[in-house]
Amino acid sequence: MDIVEYFLLALRALRANKLRSLLTMLGIIIGVASVILLVSIGTGLQNLVTKQFASLGSNNVYLMPGKVDLRQGPPTANTSKFEITDIDNLTRGSSVISKVAPAVRQVAPVIYKGKTISVEIIGTWEQYFPMTNFEAKTGDILRQTDVERTRKVVVLGAKPAEDLFGDADPVGSYVTIGDVRYQVKGVLAAKGSGGGLGSDIDNSVYIPLTTALRQFNLTKPMMILIQSTDQGSVEQAAQDAKRILLRRLKEDDFTVMQQTELLNTINTFLGAITVALGGIAGISLLVGGIGIMNIMLVSVTERTREIGLRKAVGGRPQDILLQFLIEAVILSLFGGGIGIALGMLGSLAINQFIQTYVTMWSVALASGFSALIGIVFGVAPAIRASRLDPIEALRYE
Length: 397
Known about the structure:
Blueprint: H1 3-15, H2 18-55, E1 60-65, H3 85-93, E2 97-112, E3 115-124, H4 128-131, E4 136-139, H5 144-148, E5 153-156, H6 158-165, E6 174-177, E7 180-188, E8 204-208, H7 209-215, E9 223-228, H8 234-245, E10 254-258, H9 259-302, H10 304-312, H11 317-350, H12 360-386, H13 390-395
Parallel strand pairs: 3-8, 5-7
Antiparallel strand pairs: 1-9, 1-10, 2-3, 2-6, 2-9, 4-7, 5-8, 6-7
């Protein structure tokens, strides 16, 4: 017999028990679909974070208070020791630092005509917007005169503007932040990379730094953002910033973090989550493999007389072994194919709500693993069938 005959014989045997074959494949189908779906969610999250960082500028460096190690979680309540004078020192002290912007961040309610939303309030100044690639869709961004005169003006991110005003242009209207009334100066163009996961970069509002310090009873910037002249000088800008700040502060008083460092740390964390999700889903593939082995063992018992008859008319043990092994592999491959289709369709459906991305390696891994399961878990039943004594098999009732 050639391989085609073995294949056709295996198909006929599986078609004879359609329901049992389908139930046997169910574990593989669920396992493969779960691996592809969960990995696509994890990969989509990584892509989302990468896009968000890219949209905020690739040559930015963040100066944060205290000693920050993202691998050990967010910092505990650190008291900022930054001063406004540090801004001038950073600007004048390095030839590769082109822009500097301080910032304070607080979460507060924003109210307009009975509608209330809770968003992040960022107190900063003019340089912050070109550094983070934000542009005004309508109205204008914050200007230095707003900071110098401590004006009560606000620039809305795309999402707060939509939540409070819908399709109407809010420029010139008044909103209340906390218990202070602000006039809307502008609305930022949406970056559109929030994707429903994590922090949405379009979901913030911006007020002048001096106004924020006064309203939230603060005296120092909570963060300083610097930008190098080009991407090739980011490392030098970070070193210069550290050198300049160490003239006044201690090493434990601040942390210098490059955007690439932040991105790599976050992606390492998200990559571990993606692998963990895939591993959890892979457990169901093992369960599916055990299901195949159990059903094939039952099939060997049910077809004992058939095996005895085939051996009696000249069938070799390797012929019997190959037939049952091919049946197990077919179940795995068909189940894997259906699982791949369901996983991709599920990822497509979820992509309407959160960003997902199906990777070829996850498809190859899931399909390869399902085929391997068919071989590994099909070997024991196939060997058992091939070793049956033909006389005893023919006597089996």
